[in-house]
């Protein structure tokens, strides 16, 4: 065991263990960056499409991920 953290779902434990093992099984087919969590890869892939579906309500600048928009909004 790596730490004493407990999880209700086995899948959450598997995902957490990757923090300790540095395993990143989800690889981007375009740039070969790797991620520990599939949803992070999915969000990353959107950066390659050019689609920017997340718009800042203050300045109308658009972003490809909600996380990028959240970081940007903190600057306002």
Would you give an account of this structure?
The chain has 76 residues and is of the alpha+beta class. It has one domain: Double Stranded RNA Binding Domain (2-Layer Sandwich), CATH 3.30.160.60. It has 3 helices and 4 strands. The protein has helices spanning 10-21, 38-49, 66-73; strands at residues 26-27, 34-35, 54-55, 62-63. Strands 1-2 form a two-stranded antiparallel sheet. It has a two-stranded antiparallel ribbon with strand order 3-4. Strand 3 (54-55) and strand 4 form a beta hairpin. The longest helix is centred in the N-terminal third of the chain and has 12 residues, at 10-21. It starts with 9 loop residues before the first helix and ends with a helix. 0% of the residues are buried. InterPro entries: C2CH-3rd_BIRD-IDD, Transcr_Reg_ZincFinger, Znf_C2H2_sf, Znf_C2H2_type. Residues 1-25, 26-53, 54-76 form the C2H2-type domain. Keywords: Metal-binding, Nucleus, Repeat, Transcription, Transcription regulation, Zinc, Zinc-finger.
